[in-house]
């Protein structure tokens, strides 16, 4: 994808590109930075440190180093190309636009941790939390796609109003999940397990493997992160005035 962007830039093919060129490169760069960051953390902590010394381990370490370099490079691109105060640019180059990328990325990580339905099945409160993650992800993804497709004028309401309403709704939804998920997962009164050793799956697992309790804790932390992202999104969306071109 990076090579494609270079070809379009060098060849001056931006007018023929099917997506909004003011929004696409920085959106891709932000996603790439986040994916490289996650790979730079997950790969060494879950695999490299448990490999025996040798050529394969050296190659894995080298791959991790280059992943870190790529992450820094993509993050630098995002920092250089994001919108400055008073600058006319695409929405995805603004802080709320970049926060949309973060929100969808964090939601994808949450989905990876709740892929096993036993974490929330048969508990309406936890099923509501899963619905919150899905609904907010879809809404944020729609906002991104509308900008990438340059289709924001297709909405029946002004796009800034849509964004503010989306951010407010997401804050309220995530606030409820921030209360319900930890309550029903870690409070014994609601059938939760406050300590890792209380989970039979964790007692029988290896120290470096992720068990059910670890997944519950990870989702709680990621929920808090996304709630903060949506709050920041709401604040910026309420004050930001941008010009769509």
From TrEMBL:
Keyword Transmembrane in annotation: yes
One CC-aspect GO term: plasma membrane
Location of the protein in the cell: Membrane
Record flagged with keyword Membrane: yes
Top-level division of the source organism's lineage: Eukaryota
Annotated MARVEL domain residues: 1-86, 91-242
Residues that span the membrane, as ranges: 26-48, 60-81, 101-119, 126-146, 166-186, 207-232
Membrane-protein topology: Multi-pass membrane protein
Coiled-coil regions listed: none
Protein name: Myeloid-associated differentiation marker (Predicted)
Organism: Rhinolophus ferrumequinum
């Amino acid at each position: 994808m990076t090579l494609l962007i270079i070809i379009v830039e060098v060849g001056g093919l931006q007018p023929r590109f099917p997506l909004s060129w003011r929004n696409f490169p920085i959106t891709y760069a932000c996603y790439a930075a986040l994916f490289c960051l996650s790979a730079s953390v997950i790969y060494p902590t879950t695999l490299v440190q448990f490999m025996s010394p040798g050529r394969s381990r050296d190659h894995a370490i080298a791959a991790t180093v280059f992943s870190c370099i790529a992450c820094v490079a993509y993050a630098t691109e995002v920092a250089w190309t994001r919108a400055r105060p008073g600058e006319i640019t695409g929405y995805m180059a603004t802080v709320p636009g970049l926060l949309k990328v973060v929100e969808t990325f964090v939601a994808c990580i949450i989905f990876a941790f709740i892929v096993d339905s036993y974490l929330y099945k048969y508990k309406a409160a936890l099923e509501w939390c899963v619905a919150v993650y899905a609904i907010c992800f879809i809404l944020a993804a729609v906002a991104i796609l509308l900008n990438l497709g340059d289709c924001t004028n297709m909405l029946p309401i002004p796009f800034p109003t849509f964004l503010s309403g989306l951010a407010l709704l997401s804050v309220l939804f995530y606030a409820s999940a921030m209360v319900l998920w930890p309550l029903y997962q870690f409070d014994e009164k609601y059938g939760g397990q406050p300590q890792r050793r209380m989970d039979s799956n964790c007692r029988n697992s290896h120290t470096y493997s992720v068990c059910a309790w670890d997944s519950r804790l990870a989702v709680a932390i990621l929920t808090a992160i996304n709630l903060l992202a949506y709050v920041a999104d709401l604040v910026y969306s309420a004050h930001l005035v941008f010009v769509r071109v």
